[in-house]
Amino acid sequence: MFQPLTREAMARRLAQDIPDGSYVNLGIGMPVLVAAHLPAGREIILHSENGILGMGPPPAEADINLDLINAGKQPVTLLAGGAYFHHADSFAMMRGGHLDICVMGGMQVAANGDLANWSLAKPGEAPAVGGAMDLAVGARSVYIMMEHTSKSGEPKIVERCTYPLTGAGVVDRIYTDLAVIEVTPDGLLVRDMIDGMTLTALQARTGAPLRAA
Hints:
This protein is α/β, with parallel strands linked by helices. The chain is about 15% helix and about 25% strand. The chain has helices spanning about 5-15, 85-95, 130-140, 200-205; strands spanning about 25, 45-50, 50-55, 80-85, 100-105, 110, 115, 140-145, 155-160, 175, 180-185, 185-195, 210.
């Protein structure tokens, strides 16, 4: 029997894999939790697409500054030496390849690294994609943080995405509540699994072939 990771535990697990000295964008939703779990003594510079560099962990309630928020409109802190700046400058950083890692949520990830994470819209609807496409192609590495299956139990890691794509072949690694999976030219490679999980059980919850590292 196994116990899936909580979202906080997922964030803690992902944070352990961010190298010292990295410039990292944290996307809207689950990825913002990573800011509170960065390893002590490791210099990691956090970026938010609305125009922050040097973002810190979430503030205590007494320290909230409503003028200092992330892209998801949540209050954040600013570390010593941090800065905030124009939205256009932030997107120039994203598009110019100046970010080492982007951590984003996902609705589907395909075996070849295709990502769908911005729209569950019905035909005729047109939601905004925000900066997800810019980040997906601009960051040197893309880490996806998501539950392994949907609320209805459908696999979110699939052979081919059925939702509108955010980026083609952009995902490098997937962090779920069950496993850490690397996207390679030879397919999906399972790097880590939660206690009690087997490759057979993980495969049964995955819509694309898996290989053990």
